[in-house]
Write a structure and sequence with these properties.
Layout: E1 19-22, H1 27-49, H2 59-65, H3 84-89, E2 91-94, E3 100-103, E4 114-122, H4 139-148, E5 162-171, H5 179-190, H6 194-198, H7 202-212, E6 213-219, E7 231-233, E8 239-243, E9 251-252, E10 257-258, H8 262-276, E11 322-323, E12 398-399, H9 414-419, E13 422-425, H10 430-454, H11 457-460, H12 471-478, H13 482-500, H14 502-508, H15 510-523, H16 536-554, H17 556-571
Parallel strand pairs: 4-5, 4-6, 6-8
Antiparallel strand pairs: 1-13, 2-3, 7-8, 9-10, 11-12
Helix pairs in contact: 4-8, 10-12, 10-15, 12-13, 13-14, 13-15, 16-17
The structure holds calcium ion (4 copies) and zinc ion (2 copies).
Length: 578
């Protein structure tokens, strides 16, 4: 397992690339395990004391009663990690009353795959759905649909997975949250519904629930160099965070709080859940930005910020392996499932990519205008935001295809969780989304240069006039002035058509311009032309200041005390949040 450490002083551009290894022997993690084993002892005691009323003949049936790891050896017809008995009758547990109870799994079917997630959300971060101006759709429903349409077959002859998302409760807002916070502080307090936690048998009830339910928090942001990262998850595991509250993510106009777009929420939820289900950024491996791996796990396709038409999906088939040291152009990228998906390859450098071919057709890997070369050596997944060494373009030249849906590990037992070390990569970041725009513009520059090189001398004459200079567009993109950028891109396209003709422009550059316009239209970021509205933290601070001012006005010792509090409040910097 790769060990990746946190680098304290890093270029912001790379701040999302790091991994942190959460060791199983990390003290707080151990605390959880102790709690679990204490719980197991407690449950065993409860079972022993109730032996008179419940027939128990061996320790193995004890285990089964409390739904331990032995459950894995029980019949699981549909292979979703939930024994048939749990799906038919509920997960068994013994309560304080000594009686056996069952935790009923909603919608469970022993002949169709089920997956369970409880979602709590920090104040202001309720997943988008139905009630906001972001649209009538729901981010969670987008993900449920993707699972319903999954490329997996079931014993009852249906296809797909029933994803049950329990959108539960609003929890206390905190500016930054780590995965360790989630595991050690938030989950013990907030896992389960209020009613479940109030149940007299809540300890064993919740222990049962957590054997089937993943736990997700829609939180604000992550600390330090992780700030701006879209999420974080155990791989494999049962817990994950979605963090789209950093400055620059789309703002909910009702609350004036950054929360991300519906598309970013759905994509990040599915990406982090994918890590829980044991997917890496390359599917079975961590090689990132593979053009032959069509999955929301791949940074090329997590957000629709590079390939605007990318489906919200895990990969449905394993495409042919690509060897960066020995590429065959006529073979291109093998056909995708569904066929004809848009992909992208690089390297993203002057004169090369990104370009956007579809799967199943020959590819000009070396950018020489022909698609007949063999033995090409080119860093085709390089130069993207996963193209640097720490972003895992891969240790060698081999880019393997992978079928995600066939490889999912649905639930991970508490014992397995406790025993493993987690490798936690830092995820796609708001600065990556901005960087993607510039990379798309780089692709447009390169395409125009190819058109100039291929075209008539009179077109070459146009080169020094600078009519295809994109510096101004780059400036607009860097400052989030996306509407103005779209207008300029439309002008650029009209110029390209006028100079090079419709056919050549359509071949090289119009699809690239349209792709960039489409990604910008989907991003709905805050406009930099209007200052960002104050966060709710700042508004609360303003209210406290108002109250303190009234006390200060009273004067005397009372006023002085209030003044001291006010000084401390305003020294203690909510700067980081703004
Ligand atoms: Ca099952
Ligand atoms: Ca099932
Ligand atoms: Ca809860
Ligand atoms: Ca070629
Ligand atoms: Zn927030
Ligand atoms: Zn990831």
């Amino acid at each position: 397992m790769t060990y990746c450490s946190i680098f304290p002083n890093v270029d912001k551009q790379f701040s999302c690339h790091y991994c942190v290894l959460i060791l199983a022997k990390e003290p707080k993690r151990i605390k959880i395990r102790l709690t679990d084993s204490t719980m197991a002892i407690l449950m065993s005691l409860l079972i022993l004391t109730s032996a008179a009323t419940i027939p128990i003949s061996s320790s193995s049936s004890t285990s089964r009663l409390i739904g331990s790891a032995n459950a894995q050896t029980e019949q699981d017809t549909d292979g979703d990690g939930l024994p048939d008995d749990w799906e038919e009758n509920g997960i068994p547990y013994v309560g304080n009353d000594g009686a056996q109870h069952r935790y009923i799994l909603p919608q469970a079917d022993p002949n169709r795959k089920n997956l369970y997630v409880e979602v709590d959300y920090m104040n202001g971060h309720r997943p988008i759905g139905g009630t906001t101006v972001f649209g009538a759709g729901s981010a969670i429903e987008d993900v449920r649909r993707a699972f319903r349409n999954a490329a997996v077959s079931n014993p009852n002859t249906s296809t797909g997975i029933t994803l049950f998302v329990q959108l539960d409760e609003n929890i206390t807002h905190q500016d930054t949250t780590t995965l360790n916070d989630l595991i050690n502080n938030i989950k013990p307090k907030w896992f389960g519904t209020a009613a479940e936690r109030a149940d007299p048998n809540n300890i064993t009830l919740l222990a049962s629930k957590r054997m089937a339910f993943h736990y997700a928090i829609f939180a604000h942001d992550q600390p330090g160099n992780f700030s701006g990262s879209s999420g974080v998850a155990e791989r494999p595991g049962m817990d994950f965070l979605v963090t789209l509250g950093a400055p620059g993510y789309a703002i909910d106009p009702v609350t004036n709080h950054a929360v991300g777009t519906r598309s970013q929420q759905a994509a990040t939820f599915m990406h982090e859940l994918g890590h829980n289900l044991d997917l890496g950024h390359g599917g079975g491996d961590d090689t990132n930005c593979k053009p032959n791996y069509f999955s929301v796990m791949n940074y090329l396709f997590q957000f629709p910020s590079l390939v605007s038409s990318r489906p919200l999906d895990y990969s449905r088939s394993a495409l042919a392996t690509l060897n960066k040291a020995n590429l065959n152009e006529s073979s291109g990228i093998s056909q995708s499932t569904p066929p004809g998906l848009n992909t992208t390859y690089g390297p993203v450098v002057t004169g090369k990519g990104p370009v956007f071919p579809i799967a199943g057709v020959p590819v000009d890997w070396n950018f020489n205008g022909r698609t007949t070369d063999t033995g090409v050596n080119s860093d085709i997944n390089g130069g993207y935001d996963c193209g640097s060494k720490i972003r895992f373009p891969g240790p060698g030249p081999i880019l393997a295809g992978f079928n995600d849906w066939n490889a999912l590990r649905y639930v991970v037992s508490q014992q397995a969780l406790a025993a493993q070390a987690f490798e936690v990569p830092i995820e796609e970041n708001i600065s990556d989304i901005r960087q993607d725009r510039l990379q798309l513009l780089q692709g447009i520059d390169n395409a125009i240069q190819r058109l100039i090189d291929q075209s008539q001398p009179n077109a070459i004459m146009l080169k020094p006039t600078g009519i295809f200079d994109t510096t101004y567009i780059a400036q607009l993109l860097k400052t989030d002035q996306l509407e103005a950028a779209i207008a300029e891109l439309n002008k650029l396209q009209a110029k390209a058509v006028a100079v090079f003709g419709q056919e050549a422009a359509n071949r090289e550059v119009v699809p690239q311009i349209q792709n960039l316009i489409s990604t910008l239209q989907q991003e709905e970021p805050s406009s930099s032309s209007t200052p960002p509205p104050p966060s709710h933290h700042d508004r609360i601070k303003d209210r406290i200041n108002e109250v303190l001012d009234r006390h200060i006005a009273v004067g005397g010792a009372h006023g002085e005390a209030a003044q001291k509090i006010k000084d401390r409040l305003n020294d203690g910097g909510s700067d980081r949040h703004r």
